[in-house]
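Deliverable D4.2, example record:
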Amino acid sequence: MQTDTMRAMVLEEAGKPLQLRQLPIPSPGPGQLLIRVAACGVCRTDLHIVDAELTRPKLPLIPGHEIAGTVERAGAGVKRFRPGDRVGVPWLGSTCGTCRYCARGQENLCSEAGFTGYTIDGGYAEYTVADQRYCFPLPEGLGMAEAAPLLCAGLIGYRSYRMAGDRVERLGIYGFGAAAHIIAQIAIHQRKRVYALTRKGDTDAQQFALRLGATWAGDSDELPPEPLDAALVFAPVGALVPAALRAVDKGGVVVCGGIHMSDIPSFPYSILWEERTIRSVANLERRDGDELLALAPTVPVKTEVERFALEEANEVLSRLRSGRIHGAGVLVMDSAA
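Output generated by the structure prediction step:
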């Protein structure tokens, strides 16, 4: 029987560990869903929030924006979902619908956007509420814990991959974590040659990439064995941008996939010349989610996850901080997830 309280991991002060708290279960407002959280992925963006590198969270805050769960109750006016439906909740939690960006179809750049687990309470909890318009139906046959990383690592990775363009045959991926291992599977399925570049000496990550079908894997301070058509930079290390520019061929694209990155050092114009391009990815559009969740079962994408209990959230963040998570770390609230 459902009680009227839930367990949640709460950020009460930036830069401090999360605290396990017993809180009232929230009620869904008009257009919202009350979701029983089965699993919530632990994303590097969560780490940037906890470590105060992203400086405008609501406090206190329940982090987490890779949410997979089941609709428990629907608020007034909800048409898209009903109790019992399997849903995913991503980083983009709301938009104004009226600013110049929304008006021209760039909702990911909305000036008044709300973000799950940053300005809106997220999924490090047994229940959460979310706007039905920014939730996705989850494919059948995909476990909740395996689905969770698709909601951000997958979505941002997919958007980064799309931004690399249609002419990519040789794809470099800098930082082989949650996003990289999802996108590598899609790229290999689409007959791209994937080159994985990891932190120096991280042979575990390199072997992981090779097991997934990468053509080559090595240290990020190396050049891959052939010039790349595009490079996706998922590691939040600014020095990788000029490294990636040196690795891409004429007309190549370097896509920065993170929400936060250390400063990019100066670099000679010669490595940007010949129509090389640097792009950044901001948030996501709902079409990214629709496309990825339709594509993932056809590959099929198999997310490699390490499962943890809700109260182990600080341990997962610590392991992510030091590069000791391969694949994706996921908090599991439902033993069947």
